[in-house]
Amino acid sequence: MQKIESHACFGGRQEVWQHLSGVLGCEMRFGVYLPPQVALGPCPVLYWLSGLTCSEQNFITKAGAQRYAAEHGLILVAPDTSPRGEDVVDADGYDLGKGAGFYVNATEAPWSRHYRMHDYVVEELPALVDAHFPTTTARGISGHSMGGHGALVVALRNPGRYRSVSAFSPIVAPTRVPWGQKAFGAYLGLDTETWREWDACELVAGAKARLPLLVDQGEADEFLDRELQPSRLQAACEAAGHPLELRLQPGYDHSYYFIASFIGDHIAHHARALKE
Ligand SMILES: N[C@@H](CCC(=O)N[C@@H](CS)C(=O)NCC(=O)O)C(=O)O
């Protein structure tokens, strides 16, 4: 592991690290915010999964999350959104390939060689983070858009591994909208039955644990009707009896201005569960 950046921030440090990922078969970067409380002992970790076109930089430079993480004593970990490097296959368009890993394990060539973001986020990265930083075993997960889908799916697929989950403007039903259908068709193949295990609305129906979901969605989001469709998650949660707090925020769009406006609420939500 190599430290790429280190900045004093709200009494703690914002760092960027690079490492060779065995799961993804390439060099990867991630952001880690260490709050001032790490000087006193181990802290819980909140993982953040970013959306299409993002790297590890977008969240750490735009969301303003460090202020709240410093208040609550949470470590923040923000990975990249896909495998990277010259060896890694890419596609035309911002919604497939690099910057668009969709947090699934690809089964189809040529994607299956590197695109295994689920296992990277759930297995390899937490093991690395726990080995290098003063963490407790308490983990939460959140994210935005493609990363909101990632956070919901990762939490629902891995009961017991995360104590809290939330999402901003998530793609709640990727099997039913263009972004998800394009990515899943490439990464998972044409048998749409296999897609269902990567769709939050499908997973809610059969979830073994009923971890409450907190979701914020801007009503002026340019992707609301075509790609996001939060009413599908509301219907799935109602049918399954799964706890959901869905907050529709008038006037807010899909950008990090929206995330910055409500990230304090989300970090407080995670801190309540992670510091129990
Ligand atoms: N309008 C964007 C669509 C992608 C987009 O809105 N990405 C969101 C996540 S789905 C984002 O976080 N972008 C980076 C940023 O705002 O910093 C484009 O065409 O590149």
Automatic annotation (TrEMBL):
Q: What class of enzyme is it?
A: hydrolase
Name the domain of life.
Bacteria
Instruction: Spell out the catalytic residues.
Output: 145, 221, 254
Any idea which GO molecular function terms this record carries? carboxylic ester hydrolase activity; S-formylglutathione hydrolase activity
GO CC, alphabetical: cytosol
| Keywords, sorted A to Z | Hydrolase, Serine esterase
What is one process in the GO biological process aspect for this record?
Answer: formaldehyde catabolic process
- Quote the EC number: 3.1.2.12
According to UniProt, the reaction catalysed is:
S-formylglutathione + H2O = formate + glutathione + H(+)
Its annotated function is as follows: Serine hydrolase involved in the detoxification of formaldehyde.
Q: Into which family does the record put it? A: Belongs to the esterase D family.
| Protein name from the UniProt record | S-formylglutathione hydrolase
